[in-house]
Amino acid sequence: MVQIAMTIAGSDNSGGAGIQADIKTFQELGVFGTSALTAVTAQNTQGVHAIQSIDPEIIAAQIEAIFTDFPVHAVKTGMLFSSEIIQVVAEQLKNKEIPLVIDPVMIAKGGASLLREEAIEALKKELLPIATVVTPNIPEAEVLTGLQIQNNADIEKAAKHILALGAKSVVIKGGHRVDVPDAEDLFMSAAGEKFYVRTPWIDTKDTHGTGCTYAAALTAFLAEGKKQADAVISAKNFIHAAIENGLDIGSGHGPTNHWA
Ligand code: PLP
Hints:
The protein is built from eight helices and nine strands. With 260 residues, it is an alpha/beta fold. The chain has a single domain, classed as 3-Layer(aba) Sandwich (UDP-N-acetylmuramoyl-L-alanine:D-glutamate ligase), CATH 3.40.1190. Bound molecules: pyridoxal-5'-phosphate. This is Hydroxymethylpyrimidine/phosphomethylpyrimidine kinase.
């Protein structure tokens, strides 16, 4: 039987990030992709030019339409934009006994805000407690915890803080770090697992959509039945290959390659 994954996220019409990245990644990993669109963005490799969020009722209807018809095996959330949207998504997902990956998307590389500041508390209160894995980068982990992160001790403190908010596990992605030579991510779970997963640093500007692609790969591996820690390692290898084969298209940050 085919495994089914769902992404609840914003559209990136340039095809590198957002719902498009998620569905391409699901397809590449052999999982059937479904979606609920939370926002439409107008963007290209130079940045995000406009955002229109979707009516929360329509978001709920999209999620319901899939869940009442398909056996969904794993879900991920990406750009959620507002506290109203977060509330509707949390309400829809709270009693589902399937893996839930929360990618706490906040700010695009070009600086555009994909999550209103007023929505941060809702994200912490409504969604993190039902998350199977939360996947912040360092700036997102700092916002979620109020901590300043400079080294491994800080990262581990932040991970514990995120687990204390109710998530089953967390991956803090180290792509923004300058104190270590590799791309080094920390996995920590409420069950007591803790390890760093490292891949060599790749010096490239073509990294648009790395966060979405990483979380989508993780969701696909969880949909296939992998345990959280194994799914993180597989997703890390996938994103390394996707960045290594990044596409130099457009005049700005080219996209991560989803069929790497
Ligand atoms: N657009 C959408 C809809 C996204 O969800 C994201 C990231 O999550 C981005 C753009 C930004 O991608 P990046 O910061 O990798 O350029």
